[in-house]
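Methods — Computational structure assignment.
A single polypeptide chain was analysed. Its primary sequence is given first, followed by the predicted tertiary structure written as C-alpha cells.
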Amino acid sequence: MRIGILSKRETGLVDRLRTFFIENGHKVSIYTSKNLKVNSSLFKNDLYILKSKQLLFLYTAYFLQLNNVSIIPDPTISYIHKHRVETYYSMKKCGLNTPQIYMGTPRSIKKNLKASDYPLIVKPLMGSGSKGIKIIKSSKDFENDLNNILYFEKYINGVHYLAYFIGDKICVGEKQPLANEHAKIKVIEPEKDIKNVLKIWRNAYNLLFGHLDMIRETKSNKLLVVDTGTFPEFSNWKLDNDYGTEICNLILKRYEEIKG
C-alpha cells in the first residue's frame, strides 16, 4: 500500500510511523509545507495520515476526502479539535466539565468582568497546546489592541494532568500549569474519573488515540478538561509498549474498516 503523511516535520513520531510502515512492506511519502502540492498528483497514495492540524494540511485533507481518498484521522474532527470554540462545545456536548469561558474583544470583556472574575487565561482561537497562552491577572494586563476577538478561560487552581490514550491503553502524568506536552511529567496511576473522561471522549468521536489536558480543581476537587489533542507526539508516553507500532496498527485496522 502507498501511504502519505501530512506533517510539519519528518522527525519524532512521524519517523517512527514511516519506519514501521516501510518495514511492513508499505511505500511512504511525507508531505511537509516544503514539498506539498495540492493537486491530482496526491491521488497516487491509497491512504493519508493527517499528523498536523495546520490549515494547509487540513485543507489538503478536505481536498483528498472530497476525491474519495482515505484519510485518518477524520479532518472534520481534527478541525473541530483545533478550534478553541468548537472544542469547548464538543466537550460540553459530551457532558465533560470545563472552565467558565468568555469570548469577545478585550474591550467588551473588560467592561463586563468583575475583579473577582480574574485571573483569566487568553488562548489563540486556533491551535492547541500551550503556544500563545497568557495569564490575565487584571484588566490592566490586556494588550493595547482591544478590538481583536479572543477566547478566555477562567484560570483554575489545581493539579494539572496530561492524559494520553492509544486505543484502550492510557498513560497519565502530573505536569506544571500551562506546560506543553513535552515538559517533564510525573506518571501517576489515574483515578477512576480520569479514566472515565478519556473513555467518554474517545467513544464520542470514535478516536483511535489522542490526549486531554485536565485540571483537578483544588477548591472543589472537580475534574475539568481544558485542552485536547488529536495527534500528539506522545513524547511523554511511559508505558512499556511501542506506541509507534500501536498507533500504526490502529490506523491500518481503521483503514480496513473504511474500505470494507
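Note: The longest strand covers residues 158-166.
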